[in-house]
């Protein structure tokens, strides 16, 4: 847990310092099993600083052949790793957490440099990695199944959880380090080897993480292959990974479209998938709410990370009695948002990831207007440093039924709408195809309880008097409907990374058949 607020001190941190501290250079290769990086595709990927458009580095991507080499090592390493007692694996993950603590400042700065979130959020992301390592260390001593009552005399039943194999992790640009850690920290204590295909928009974050972790595995005398990375195209590496029968579990974070493809392929080979896809997260703001709290949460939820979290607040469903006051206050906050360099401590909102994201932002606003929406604030593309990747956070008044409101745009666009009766608010709330995160602001016990009841929010995450984004690692993270149904991170999500075995043990010597069946010659 972070013990104090993450104050940014990164103004003085230069790209050169970040690169030096994290073992990065201008030209690198995209495949690793933990030793020297390699690749032979001659197909180069550019890592681009979204703030300036500057090319940060060129990475030779992993080829299909490189993938095979990586997989071979991962499978071998799994056999060694699964034989180690889980608490010993936990000790290695504890050291990974320590190594991340050492590099927190620099890794957090790299996240800002390559992805564009502001430094306090970059640091927060690394903190999430540290927290999940701590969580996994405890877990390594408590991975457990129940003992069950047998119907047969002198018999005992129990469940065991065994390591699964090589786990494939596909992550998105918006959480370029934390989501990988949620998966790997758990998978490692569960006894699995991990192969990571990071987003092609944030390869440096992946290289830096791998450098940190590989050092720890090496120091512990462990074989290469427990932590693997393949930076490469979806059409080569991604397809190989999801089709690979030697990968029993794929954990993927990204768009619903991507998830549908992965779900179909992995399902087709009867593999296991954890899918964490799009959200369309709303806050209901009741007339019985503390509006100051609601304002802070809506503001962070919608503007934080420039609206590029899966959990970003995309809709506000506001009681008609407080609607005008609330929206006015929100606009006043929006006007004060400092937009600029994410590494400048005064900045509250950095750039979008690339110009494609800006095009999505512009298209969504255009569509919203055509579909009856009224622009209340924002709507403009800004170019503080030349690159057309900055936008104004935007508020649009619109009907929930408008097609644009029904789909997720990964940008800081907030749709606001009114309600009169709480039941109507709940209906509007659930009337979207996605189901990740949700919140209600109310001081009414009845409204709060209704919201988290079976009659209320249909999302995987439902909060009272806190916002939709910024979930803690201790809870299971994920959502329903088009969000994909997967759960990662805390609670009992670890079960997805292991295989369950039911055991029945006869300690009485006599054979008894279940269900009273008699079978004697
Ligand atoms: C994501 O956007 O994919 O709850 C993950 C949050 C973060 C994780 C978001 N802890 O906003």
Report on this structure.
The protein is an alpha/beta fold. The chain folds into 2 domains: 21-277 and 487-500, 3-Layer(aba) Sandwich (Aldehyde Dehydrogenase, Chain A, domain 1); 281-475, Aldehyde Dehydrogenase, Chain A, domain 2 (3-Layer(aba) Sandwich), CATH 3.40.309. The protein is 38% helix and 21% strand. The strands form 7 sheets. The chain has a 7-stranded mixed beta sheet with strand order 14-17-18-13-12-20-21, with helices on both faces. A 6-stranded mixed beta sheet has the order 2-9-8-7-10-11, sandwiched between helices. Helix 3 packs antiparallel against helix 4. It is globular. The termini are far apart. The mean pLDDT is 97.
**What is the average of the pLDDT values?**
97
User: How would the global form be characterised?
Assistant: globular
CATH superfamily of the largest domain: Aldehyde Dehydrogenase, Chain A, domain 1
According to CATH, the fold-level topology of the largest domain is Aldehyde Dehydrogenase, Chain A, domain 1
Q: How much helix, percentage-wise, in residues?
A: 25-40%
Number of domains: 2
- Specify the CATH architecture of the largest domain: 3-Layer(aba) Sandwich
Q: Count of DSSP E strands?
A: 25
Beta-strand portion reads 15-25%
Name the hetero compounds present.
Answer: 2-aminohexanedioic acid
Distance from N terminus to C terminus (CA atoms, Å) equals 65 Å
Count of discrete alpha- or pi-helical segments spanning 4 or more residues = 14
| Largest beta-sheet details | 7 strands, mixed
> What Rg, in angstroms, do the CA atoms define?
24 Å
Q: Extract low-pLDDT stretches.
A: none
Major beta sheet, strand line-up: 14-17-18-13-12-20-21
SSE class: alpha/beta
At the first level of CATH, what is the class of the largest domain? Alpha Beta
């Amino acid at each position: 847990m972070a013990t104090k607020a993450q104050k940014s001190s990164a103004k003085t941190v230069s790209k050169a310092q970040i690169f030096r501290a994290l073992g990065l250079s201008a030209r690198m290769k995209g495949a690793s099993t933990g030793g020297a990086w390699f690749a032979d595709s001659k197909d180069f990927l550019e890592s681009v600083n979204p703030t300036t458009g500057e090319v940060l580095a060129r990475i030779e991507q992993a080829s299909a052949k490189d993938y095979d080499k990586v997989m071979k090592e991962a499978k071998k390493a799994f056999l060694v790793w699964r034989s180690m007692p889980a608490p010993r694996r936990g000790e290695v993950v504890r050291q990974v957490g320590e190594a991340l603590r050492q590099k927190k400042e620099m890794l957090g700065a790299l996240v800002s440099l390559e992805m564009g979130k502001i430094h306090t959020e970059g640091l927060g992301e690394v903190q999430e990695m540290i927290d999940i390592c701590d969580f996994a260390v405890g877990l390594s001593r408590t991975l457990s199944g129940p003992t069950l009552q047998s119907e047969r005399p002198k018999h005992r039943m129990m469940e065991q959880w065994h390591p699964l194999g090589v786990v494939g992790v596909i992550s998105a640009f918006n959480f370029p380090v934390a989501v990988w850690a949620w998966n790997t920290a758990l998978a490692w204590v569960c006894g699995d080897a991990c192969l990571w295909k990071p987003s092609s928009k944030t390869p440096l974050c992946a290289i830096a993480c791998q450098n940190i972790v590989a050092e720890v595995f090496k120091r512990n005398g462990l074989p290469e292959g427990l932590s693997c990375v393949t930076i490469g195209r979806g059409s080569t590496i991604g397809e190989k990974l999801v089709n690979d029968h030697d990968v029993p579990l794929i954990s993927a974070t990204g768009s619903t479209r991507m998830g549908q493809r992965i779900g179909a392929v992995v399902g087709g080979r009867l593999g296991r998938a954890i899918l964490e896809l799009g959200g369309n997260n709303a806050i209901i703001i009741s007339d019985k709410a503390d509006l100051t709290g609601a304002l802070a949460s809506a503001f962070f939820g919608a503007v934080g990370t420039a609206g590029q979290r899966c959990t970003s607040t995309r809709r506000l469903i506001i009681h008609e009695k407080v609607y005008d006051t609330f929206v006015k206050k929100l606009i006043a906050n929006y006007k004060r948002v400092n937009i600029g360099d994410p590494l400048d401590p005064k900045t509250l909102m950095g750039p979008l990831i690339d110009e494609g994201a800006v095009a999505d932002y512009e298209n969504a606003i255009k569509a919203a207007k055509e579909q009856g929406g009224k622009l209340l604030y924002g709507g403009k593309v800004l170019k503080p440093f030349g690159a057309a990747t900055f936008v104004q956070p935007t508020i649009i008044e619109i009907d929930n039924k408008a097609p644009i409101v029904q789909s997720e745009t990964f940008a800081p666009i907030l749709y606001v709408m009114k309600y009169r009766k709480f039941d109507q608010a709940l209906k509007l709330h659930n009337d979207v195809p996605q189901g990740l995160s949700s919140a209600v602001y109310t001081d009414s016990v009845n409204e709060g309880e209704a919201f988290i009841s079976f009659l209320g929010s249909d999302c995987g995450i439902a909060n009272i008097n806190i916002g939709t984004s910024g979930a803690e690692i201790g809870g299971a993270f994920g959502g329903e409907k088009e969000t994909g149904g997967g759960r990662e991170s805390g609670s009992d999500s670890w079960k997805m990374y292991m295989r369950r075995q039911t055991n029945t043990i006869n300690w009485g010597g006599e054979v008894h058949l279940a269900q009273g069946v008699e079978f004697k010659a």
